[in-house]
Design brief:
alpha+beta; Jelly Rolls; 7-stranded mixed sheet; 3-stranded antiparallel sheet; 4 helices; 12 strands; globular; binds fe (ii) ion
Length: 244
């Protein structure tokens, strides 16, 4: 994998994982089957599988109430949040409620559900990555964002999409070809489900680690995504959140 195709994030903290054991599937001299390194789960506890040396991506497949999706899809895109904070899990709710108020996201039980979900994911990510604080981005995206196939320069990242087209990724066996061909790459290409939680390793997790992925190209479609991205504290993180 070429280093210039890695998104730079400059992670400071360490994700505590065992080194890759010899003889893992896909090792030297062994065929690399499809779905190597991918775990699918239906419960939050399944996300812990990312700690396994052989796991590069865990997808927690989940469903949200239709009423939530109807509410979020009908919101004026201008009222969707777009902010980044560095926050400890215990401060999450106090930190983001004023930010949601500031963008005029209406206060209601559906907004409470969104906050509750982010709160759960921040706690789970902090535990799994052994990170005291979490660099949280809740992004309103109406352009192509990171449209090139790339691998993040982090140890671990958590993503979920609440609205709009979802993140696209490539099975490890096709990763090098996707990176080389970029817009000419015609697949196979995988897509997360709406609300699915993807917890994946980046290039800092070890040699040959990192799931190749990209943002879905949406420029000119009139669609607006709402994306949650959680990272460990890094040199590019904002100052820690404090109550004013
Ligand atoms: Fe990325």
């Amino acid at each position: 994998m070429r280093r210039d195709q890695i998104e730079d994030d400059g992670v400071l903290t360490l994700f505590d994982m065992e080194p890759q054991a010899s003889g893992e599937p896909g090792g030297a001299g062994q065929p690399t089957p499809l779905m190597t390194g991918i775990d699918i789960c239906r419960t939050e506890d399944g996300l812990a599988a990312i700690k396994k040396p052989s796991t590069e991506l865990v997808i927690w497949q989940r469903d949200f109430p239709k009423r939530f999706q109807d509410w979020l899809d009908r919101l004026d895109a201008a009222t969707l949040p777009d902010f980044r904070i560095l926050v400890e899990p215990r401060d999450l709710r106090r930190a983001i409620d004023p930010l949601l108020d500031a963008c005029d996201m209406p206060a209601c039980d559906m907004r409470d559900l969104l906050v509750e979900d982010i709160d759960d994911l921040v706690r789970r990510f902090a535990e799994t990555a052994r990170s005291e604080s979490v660099d949280l981005r809740l992004q309103r995206v109406d352009h192509d964002a990171c449209w090139k196939f790339h691998c993040d320069n982090v140890e671990a990242r958590l993503l979920t999409t609440y609205r709009g087209p979802t993140t696209e990724w490539v099975q490890m066996v096709h990763a090098d070809r996707a990176l080389a061909e970029q817009q000419d790459y015609e697949g196979p290409l995988e897509r997360l489900g709406l609300h699915d939680v993807a917890l994946f390793k980046g290039s800092c997790a070890g040699p040959n680690s990192g799931i190749v992925h990209r943002s879905p190209p949406i420029a000119g479609t009139g669609q607006t995504r709402l994306l949650l991205c959680l990272n460990q504290h890094s040199v590019s993180s904002p100052d820690p959140w404090t109550e004013i």
